[in-house]
Amino acid sequence: MIMQDTLSFHLRRLALGAGVALLALSLAGCAGQEGRKELTTGSIPKHSKPVASMNATELAAAAESIGQAYERNPKDREAGLNYANLLRMTGRNEQALAVMQQVAINHPTDRDVLGAYGKAQAAAGQLEQALQTISRAQTPDRPDWKLKSAEGAILDQLGRSTEARRRYREALDLQPNEPSVLSNLGMSYLLTKDLRTAETYLKSAAGQPGADSSVRQNLALAVGLQGRFQEAEAIARQELTPEQAEANVAYLRSMLTQQGAWKQLAKADDGNTN
């Protein structure tokens, strides 16, 4: 029992490192892509480089710049959303939540705002509150697949995998073959140590048009956890530097050899069915 708990902790550390939704999952050292895609451009200085290519120092500088725009006009929806997103991307989750609380007060019926508020709550550990917020953002007559997927991600963090997978499938009904949702579904199975099913969904996600780096890094994680380290490193090298890819695989090797974790993981995987 202790061994299984230890293994689950390490899996969650690998798979839920950012705290917020599985949309942003990746191996250590790879920044979440979902938050980068969510950023709008209205409040970002035109001379700055694309957010997707910024390193940690540049992200911090961008957060400071957009933070000044937000301070000048806290009711500016775009500035608030961008600022909160950048704060989350730089690990300042409590501050991001405070910003989103103010944005939500000023835009109480805006679905994008409520969705971002829910993600900020999840990042700050307020998972039940996040579910309630995202539920408020969703409307039965015009369901939003992104909100369905975000809800599934939070349910996964709460350990409610059956409900989470139902949400992902509902999202896929609305947005067939969406790579971020397929990736989330794969990571849901990874969290319950059904590695073969996880890999199936993650391979499908990685093969879709528009699949980003985080999807491929999730696939590398699922492959590496099955002991196929060279294959995992080859996948990781597509976006990471050789040093980062090597470091990720080295961490996987270390984690799986500690306290017999590899044997426990293999046993759990053999007991799962697709």
Automatic annotation (TrEMBL):
This protein's name: Pilus assembly protein TadD
TPR repeat start-end pairs: 145-178
InterPro entries named among the record's database cross-references: TPR-4, TPR-like_helical_dom_sf, TPR_rpt, UCP035836
Keywords: Signal, TPR repeat
Coiled coil, from the record: none
Domain of life of the native organism: Bacteria
Transmembrane residue ranges: none
